[in-house]
């Protein structure tokens, strides 16, 4: 094969950097605290009993994980319960989500985005990988774009061989 007939990988030569949010999401461990386990007769949270249970709670189980605090029972949980749990776990966990699985997913996305080394993308042409399975896609890609903008020369969405231009830094 002659040199002028060689196949040229234009994507490789373009200098595009690909960022796949899944790469940052995959190693995050989670744990769930379900307040239904602390309800008296499955109906109400009693402050004294809850405080006693929190004293016995092994906080080491939550070290360096993202915690979801939820209640899967149909009960009204007082605000102080979340505050007590937060004071018990603050400084131990990586992050804490309050609510349901969707709330946890948004916290995981925020946590993953915060793990990205932005200097690696300084003035780069970045393609945000579009294939893959990321929960809360709209939220995830909007937040990732917001985080990228101060650092990059351009943002595209899709695959390096087929992108949709999203942003180009003004000159």
Describe the structure in brief.
By secondary structure, the protein is α/β, with parallel strands linked by helices. It has 6 helices and 7 strands, in the order H-E-H-E-H-E-H-E-H-E-H-E-E.
Strand content: 15-25%
Helix content: 25-40%
Indicate how many domains the architecture comprises.
Answer: 2
Question: What is the structural class?
Answer: alpha/beta
Task: Give the count of helical stretches.
Answer: 6
Amino-to-carboxy terminus distance = 42 Å
Radius of gyration: 22 Å
Residue ranges: pLDDT <50 for 5 or more in a row? 8-13
Strand order of the largest sheet: 1-5-6-7
Describe this structure in words.
The chain is an alpha/beta fold. It folds into 2 domains: 3-24 and 117-168, no CATH class; 30-93, no CATH class. The chain is built from 6 helices and 7 strands, in the order αβαβαβαβαβαββ. Strands 1-5-6-7 form a 4-stranded mixed β-sheet. Helix 3 (47-56) packs parallel to helix 4 (79-89) and helix 5 (101-114) runs parallel beside helix 6. The radius of gyration is 22 Å and the shape is elongated. It starts with 9 loop residues before the first helix and ends with a strand.
Identify the notable features of this structure and list them briefly.
single chain; about 170 residues; alpha/beta; 2 domains; three-stranded parallel beta sheet; 6 helices
Write the layout of secondary structure elements.
Layout: H1 10-13, E1 16-19, H2 21-25, E2 30-34, H3 47-56, E3 66-70, H4 79-89, E4 95-98, H5 101-114, E5 125-129, H6 137-148, E6 154-159, E7 162-168
Helix pairs in contact: 3-4, 5-6
